């Protein structure tokens, strides 16, 4: 006899389903195990859940159905089009509904992103699991529930139908970070799992990565990346924050060969203490910076900044306790919130601290963290003026600007903000170009280069007169 479990609430009929015209109903899914997961498109932990859910779906393809409920943190995530972009950026292929009023969240008693509600073959709530990193226990539970249903003669052996509503075809797909030099432009073509080397007109000179998600070293297009992001050049190496592989890779610019500096292909949650980088696991590295022979990593999945000595191949945490918050302090006493962008200014790292909607400074000498803009995890908005009064919404990138200023990609406000560090003021430069979730910035050759991620394009802004134009990146 199966254990007594409460009936799972039916999904409301008024939900907006962003990637299917055939909304699922729990009453029609009897005989299958259903995972209803609650997520938000800005969260690194939610992103880490997507491959686990895909693995579960593949393993239990003849009896498991996965349903996504998007519950937004930010106002910019409420529109169905924004949710669909998040679905496609994360490559989700199960039905997803937008729940901006948190109706289903409340029905299921959810308290955190991500949370998975597990529903048995009779439509009853078997478990509620919060947080990422639970693939093993979820796999065991789904298998046990399917066996239970088969023993009772209830199991329906049927595969779930994929739910796909793709983005328009384009040369780039959700370009993430970019790096401009005086004559070249490197683009993390994240949705195509590759890095492009281009000239300033967008002509592709070389491709690194096969264009298919994977984790493989090798020569040029024989190598494989997964959702590459931050880029930085040091000596003859292009370093890549390979976020989907939870790794940092290096590309030899002489011959195009790709090697892994650190990371194992799966997320790791241990804090390095002067650790050898060989075999060191990482978690969602988002951006990179270089000072001397020291590589700095915005480790978004761990809410930390790591420092790697490229000569000694040793790693340590420069700043961040690992908790998620906005607390200033030195080293591990400071708390960061999904750091996603890095730049260097005046012997300090400038950090786009995305989940805190903040820009922070990290002093290289001792790891002291101070906040320039931002007041807390839920103190976001769109305001300029003094740094204390200004508000951002999930900034994803920063770049050093003229005369000690800093550009910030204010991603969920579809804007660029300019921070004057000396005067402690924030302004919004007029660009004259429609931005859509910008997530990468670089300054070189008299221009600000923008990865206009939501529109799958690169934009160049001339710093002398503010004129902007699309860079036609094409193979």
Can you offer a commentary on this structure?
10% of the residues lie in helices and 36% in strands. It has 475 residues and is mostly beta strands. The chain has a domain at 16-151: Glutaredoxin, CATH 3.40.30.10. Strands 1-4-3-2-5-6 form a 6-stranded mixed sheet, with helices on one face. It has a 5-stranded antiparallel sheet with strand order 11-15-14-13-12, with no helix packed on it. Strands 16-20-19-18-17 form a 5-stranded antiparallel sheet, with no helix packed on it. Strand 29 (415-420) and strand 30 form a beta hairpin.
Q: Looking at CATH, which topology of the domain at 16-151 would you report?
A: Glutaredoxin
- Report the count of strand segments: 34
Q: What percent of residues adopt helix (DSSP H or I)?
A: 10-25%
Overall spatial form: globular
Estimated share of beta-strand residues: 35-45%
- What is the CATH superfamily label of the domain at 16-151? Glutaredoxin
Quickly give the structural class: mainly beta
Based on the coordinates given, report the CATH architecture of the domain at 16-151: 3-Layer(aba) Sandwich
Average pLDDT metric: 97
> Separation of termini?
61 Å
Give the low-pLDDT segments.
none
């Amino acid at each position: 006899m199966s254990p007594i479990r409460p009936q799972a609430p039916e999904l409301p009929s008024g939900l907006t389903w962003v990637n299917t015209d055939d909304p699922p109903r729990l009453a029609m899914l009897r005989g299958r195990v259903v995972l209803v997961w609650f997520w938000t498109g800005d969260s690194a932990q939610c992103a880490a859940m997507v491959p686990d859910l895909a693995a579960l779906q593949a393993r239990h393809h003849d009896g498991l159905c996965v349903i996504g409920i998007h519950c937004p943190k930010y106002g910019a995530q409420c529109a169905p089009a924004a949710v669909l972009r998040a679905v496609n950026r994360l490559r989700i292929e199960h039905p997803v509904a937008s729940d901006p009023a948190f109706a289903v969240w409340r029905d299921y008693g959810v308290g955190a992103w991500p949370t998975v509600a597990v529903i048995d073959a009779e439509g009853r709530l078997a478990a509620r699991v919060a947080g990422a990193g639970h693939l093993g226990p979820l796999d065991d539970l789904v298998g046990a529930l399917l066996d239970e249903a088969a023993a009772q003669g209830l199991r329906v052996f049927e595969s779930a139908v994929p739910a796909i509503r793709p983005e328009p075809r384009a040369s780039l797909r959700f370009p993430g970070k970019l790096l401009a030099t005086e004559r070249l432009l490197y683009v993390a073509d994240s949705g195509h799992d590759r890095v492009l080397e281009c000239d300033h007109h967008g002509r592709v000179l070389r491709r690194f990565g096969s264009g298919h998600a994977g984790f493989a070293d090798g020569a040029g297009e024989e190598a494989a990346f997964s959702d590459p992001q931050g880029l930085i050049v040091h000596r003859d190496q292009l370093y890549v924050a390979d976020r989907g592989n939870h790794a940092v890779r290096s590309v030899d610019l002489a011959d195009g060969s790709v090697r892994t500096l650190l990371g194992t292909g799966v997320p790791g949650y241990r804090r390095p203490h002067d650790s050898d980088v060989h075999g060191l696991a990482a978690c969602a590295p988002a951006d990179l910076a270089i000072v001397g022979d020291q590589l700095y990593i915005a480790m978004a999945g761990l809410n930390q900044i790591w420092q790697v000595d490229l000569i000694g191949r040793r790693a340590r945490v420069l700043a961040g306790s690992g908790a998620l918050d906005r607390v200033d302090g030195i080293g591990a006493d400071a708390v960061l919130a999904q750091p996603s962008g890095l730049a260097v200014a005046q012997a300090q790292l400038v950090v786009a601290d995305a989940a805190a909607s903040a820009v922070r400074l990290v002093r290289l000498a001792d790891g002291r963290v101070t906040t320039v803009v931002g007041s807390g995890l839920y103190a976001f908005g769109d305001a300029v003026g003094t740094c204390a009064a200004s508000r951002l919404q999930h900034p994803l990138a920063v770049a050093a600007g003229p005369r000690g200023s800093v550009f910030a990609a204010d991603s969920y406000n579809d804007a660029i903000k300019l921070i004057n560090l000396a005067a402690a003021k924030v302004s919004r430069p007029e660009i004259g170009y429609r931005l859509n979730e910008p997530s990468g910035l670089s300054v070189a050759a008299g221009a600000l280069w923008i990865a206009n991620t939501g529109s799958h394009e690169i934009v160049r802004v001339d710093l002398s007169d503010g004129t902007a134009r699309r860079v036609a990146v094409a193979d």
